[in-house]
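Weekly sync notes, structure subgroup
Attendees: PM, AL, DS (notes)

Item 1: joint prediction request from the bench team. They want all two components modeled as one assembly rather than separately. Inputs as received:
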Amino acid sequence: MKRFWHTLFRRSRVHADIAAEIKSHLAMRADLECQSGLSSTEAQAAARRKFGNATLILEDIRQVHVAPFLESILQDLSHALRQILRNPAFSLTVLFILALGIGASTAVFTVVDGVLFRPAPYANAARLVAYGLKAPIEAREFQFGFDYLYWRDRIPAFEAVTSMFPGDQPCDLTESNPARLACARVESTFLPLFGVRPILGRNFTRDEDRPLAPPVALLSYNLWQTRYGGQPNIFGLSISLDNTPARIVGVLPKDFAMPTLRPFDIILPQQLDESAQVFPSNGTTLCTFARLRPGWTPAQAVAALDPMLQKDISGAPPAYRKEIHIGVRTLRDWQNGDRRQTSWVLLLAVLAVLLLACMNVASLLLARATSRQRELAMRQALGASRLRLARHAITESILLSLCGGALGCALALSLLKMLLATSANSIPGLTEAHFSARIFVCAALLSLASGLFFGALPALRQPTLEVLAGWRSTSPSRTSIRDALVTFQIAGSLIMLTAAGLTLRTLWKLESVPLGINTEHVVTAQFTLGPTYDSTRLVVLSETLGNTFAGSPEPPTLPSPTLFLPAAPCDPCHSSLFAFPGVRPFRRVSAVWCHGAPSLPIISARSMSGCSKAELLMRPTWAQTALRRWS
Amino acid sequence: MARSSDTLLGTLDLLVFKTLARGPNHGFGIALHIQSVSEGLLRVEEGSLYPALHRLERDKFVKANWTQTENGRRARIYKLTAAGRQRLDHAESNWDNVSKGVTRVLRYV
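Output from the run, pasted for the record:
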């Protein structure tokens, strides 16, 4: 340890100390020689003669104090640094290429890290699954309350099951300084299934999860910190949620995330009315999760569940039976869906870009190595071993790649910031992406790997001594490396270019797909309304707003004021189309209120029960598909 | 860090230890002492002495300090540490064995 310290930081100090000691030795020897009658000059010369090669001895002594390997690395580094600084144009080009490659890879890795590599933050995450019905209309598994309750204790594959209400559930903190919060409604078995314990207080009990039980709430760590200043005596405090007092029973851990990956502030008991879950049409849809028994796989669970489903729906029309399946997916698959595949494609694409960048740099370095052949041959002639020369070349390329990596990190950071600022909502999972130590390690590894990659090729070349004599040497093996590199590079670039072109074309095509809606000159505004706005009040409000707009002198930029109200009050828990021929639609159709929107050609509209004045309004492309399918 | 001090190669270390056992001394003094006490039979090369001293210092058998000598010269004075003393005892008995053994081998006809 001390030797490393000496090598790194006390080189000159050690050196000076030894030199002083030798000097003192020589002086004492000269003193002695003087006593035997020599003049002082002669005495000093004699002392030096007797001492021998002082430089060599000094070097020998110094070796005792330093770590020779480390020292040689330092030498390589300083030499590499000199080489880099000597040719700034070349170095900047290489750095630029590397920063682009590594920066892009790091940025993409940051985005896909959570999807591909980071495990779900729960105990026994590998055994956690989401299960339920799979229907073509909904990407994720779901269950009706009726089925959930009936199956709950009858599935041998599952150790424990739990459920929560799907979708985002806004709720309002109706206190002084009111706020709209994201509330999740979950069963009392929810937290135990995921192995999560509140850091403060407790989970709610089964009794508190029954309908009409006095409301209780669990706070997210974030809400506890920001709104309640992290006060420890929060337990038992009563807050007003949607005008109803609710008692706080606990605070959730900081790193807890909902399995749905949606942001949340408060967890409430779902208080599912079990007696009401008699028939699917009256019931609720639920997201359902389970912990597999050890030894069971999701596929085995599907095989075990399928007969139960077939028995359940044996009375349903065949068209319905054909469309409904059982789905059991690991939590991670369920969370990420097809994002996984997209992420892999993205990651591989960007790694290919990095590979191309490395090859670019490698050919640049090879070209330069040719011009430095004389120098290398000279060093070899002076006694540098082949290994040392190779090490030298690798040191230089790794130094370059690490600098490139640092630049790349900065690039990735700004890229990510830009992405977050411009399109945080349009790319799923982007908000979860953040810079962490993992990312930096990844960038460093990428840099090291690329440094080794493009440094190895020039390092493997052996300088021949002929070049010292001024002969041109172009051995066939040497040019063939470069030829192969260039060929590969061009082939790779061509493939990438084609792929990029196709992707761009797809994007462009997607942009120009007719939506059936004229979106030009349309501006949107959103109102956040309190829970007191039931459907009747909403209709009144919409009419008032519509009249206000209609009555006001129209500003030239707002030619046709149109008002949409969301489907939320109509169908608070789910908004998807669910209807099959021969079966009464048991989910209400997602609907929007529409007051004279001239740019929306309505193909088929129906009034839905329970949603007064609601009209089915779909994009023509969807509507046509729906009509084809169900009429 | 006993570097072959239990063989003949450890002789220099033994000589240094023995010299320093008399009292702290600088490199020049050690060389001079060995030469004069051995009546010129042993001459320690500076090229071996100083690296050896520094190695012993690194391994904490001796301690070095810059001090003024009586001639008014600044010199790096080496002093035996407790570990060095132990080492000396060990090396001395070891040397006895080695020299006895070598003598026996040489005397055997």
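Discussion: Residues 554-623 of chain A have pLDDT under 50 and may be disordered.
Action: AL to compare against the crosslinking data before next sync.
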